[in-house]
Write a structure and sequence with these properties.
Heat Shock Protein 90; single chain; 3 domains; alpha+beta; five-stranded antiparallel sheet; 450 residues; five-stranded mixed sheet
């Protein structure tokens, strides 16, 4: 796919705006040139009329025409020289003098500026007429409208031409300036393109510009988070592989042992151990699928309001028969309503995992209680079983990573992190343990963290 570059995009928009402004100035300049030429011509007409009124003689030399090309160099006419016609009347309307190519207009013409159609065929003439103070003479000075328009067009062209040459020069200068100004962005693009996502060092901050510096910081932060997440997923995969290796090896060993055993107590014990190892492998696979589901929900599913009290009531009801069969006491304690924004199936999976671990890893007669505190925004599963003297090493959340128990709690830890919550073990040596999930305040819990 041939995508446009940012340089071309900026240059196109800049030149587009420049052409609009340039075109407006050219049009305004052209019109201003024409108006100035018209005013200049009218001023010349009025000036000549004033000079003729102050001239005492009324006769012009007949048959004498001055050729501008025959003038001496110091008197040579320039491009703006115009041929004017003059008519002089007395007070009774008799023509005293007439000079120039313009036909004699009617004496009744109004005093001042006017545009008259004279001659056969009719042609437009710009005229200025004026009486002397005694109203004994009237002078009219005329110039061809076509000649005046030619002068106006020439002046307007002289004003507009610099703009025509200026546009390509400005376009070239803008292109070079934009290309030079975007060099830091080009360098940043090359640095990002050269990144190795698996073994990437921090992106160097070569730019002195604040905007690009913020972009470099954001990219480095993203890379750090990605590498941390990649390391966590790699460690988790290694942990699952390690946990699966033992029960699968035991399953294979017990399966081979069963081939040589006859019916009897030894065969029954081997079958029991085989069933236990298969259950352990199944539990690890279940946790693995739960983690995969949590990862998928993090990106694909939208958070929604979840009533944790109602959710916990359903989980406790589901495990009540199992708790009764194992001799455990299972209860639910909730202090008021408790609602969070999240994924109901994942939250149910986390709570079921905690309840199942509490029932599976505590002796018969243990009291297991699901506690919800909406004010403190806390959900916890507590038991009153006194732990053994030797306990597995805790993880970074304080939760031990023993077989089955630790993997299940890694699932709970990931689901809690997905909801912006914190999962910790609250150890109570004299009265058992509490596995606690603390949710953030409602304002920050409305959006699912990445």
């Amino acid at each position: 796919m041939n995508q446009s570059t940012l340089t071309r995009h900026l240059l196109a928009w800049t030149l587009g705006a420049l052409v609009l402004v340039w075109g407006a100035f050219i049009i305004l300049g052209y019109r201003a040139g024409q108006e100035e030429a018209d005013e200049q011509t009218d001023g010349h007409l009025a000036s000549v009329a004033a000079l003729l009124l102050s001239y005492g003689g009324a006769n012009f030399t007949p048959g004498v025409a001055v050729d501008p090309s025959a003038l001496s160099p110091e008197l040579k006419a320039h491009d703006y020289q115009q041929s004017m016609s003059v008519v002089v009347w007395d007070g009774a309307g008799q023509v005293l003098a007439h000079k120039g190519a313009a036909p004699v207009p009617a004496f009744e013409s109004q005093e001042g500026f006017a545009t008259l159609a004279l001659g056969e065929p009719a042609a437009a003439w710009r005229v200025f007429s004026r009486w002397d103070p005694a109203r004994s003479r009237k002078v009219m000075v005329m110039v061809s409208v076509r000649e005046r328009d030619d002068l106006a067009e020439d002046i307007a062209d002289q004003i507009a031409q610099p703009g025509l040459w200026l546009l390509p020069v400005v376009a070239l200068a803008l292109g070079l300036a934009i290309r030079h100004g975007l060099q830091p962005l080009y360098q940043l693009s090359r640095d990002v393109d050269a990144l190795d996502i698996q073994h990437a060092s921090p992106l160097p901050d070569r730019s002195r510009h604040r905007e690009l510096g913020a972009t470099v910081v954001a990219i480095n932060t993203l890379m750090t988070r990605y590498r941390a997440a990649l390391d966590r997923e790699r460690d988790l995969a290694n942990e699952f592989a390690h946990e699966l290796r033992t029960p699968l090896a035991a399953v294979a060993l017990h399966a081979r042992a069963l081939q040589g055993l006859q019916d009897g107590p030894e065969r029954e014990r081997t079958l029991a151990r085989l069933e236990q190892d298969v259950a352990r492998a199944g539990h690890v696979l279940t946790d693995l699928l739960a983690l995969a589901r949590a990862s998928r929900a993090q990106w694909d599913e939208a958070a929604q309001p979840v009533d944790l009290v109602e959710l916990a009531r359903g989980v406790v009801a589901d495990f009540a028969p199992h708790a009764h069969g194992t001799g455990h006491e299972l209860a639910l304690v909730a202090s008021g309503p408790f609602s969070v924004a999240g994924h109901p199936l994942l939250l149910q999976l986390a709570l079921r995992n905690l309840v199942e671990n509490a029932l599976s890893h505590t002796p018969s007669g243990t009291h297991v209680e699901v506690q919800l505190d909406g004010g403190a925004r806390r959900l916890q599963v507590c038991d009153d079983a006194v732990p053994a003297a030797t306990t597995p090493a805790p993880s970074r959340t304080g939760v031990p990573h023993s077989l089955g128990l630790g993997l299940g709690h890694r699932v709970v830890e990931k689901i809690a992190a997905l909801h912006g919550a914190r999962f910790v073990l609250v150890a109570q040596p004299e009265s058992g343990n509490c596995y606690r999930i603390t949710f953030p305040a409602p304002a920050s819990a409305s959006a699912t963290p990445a």
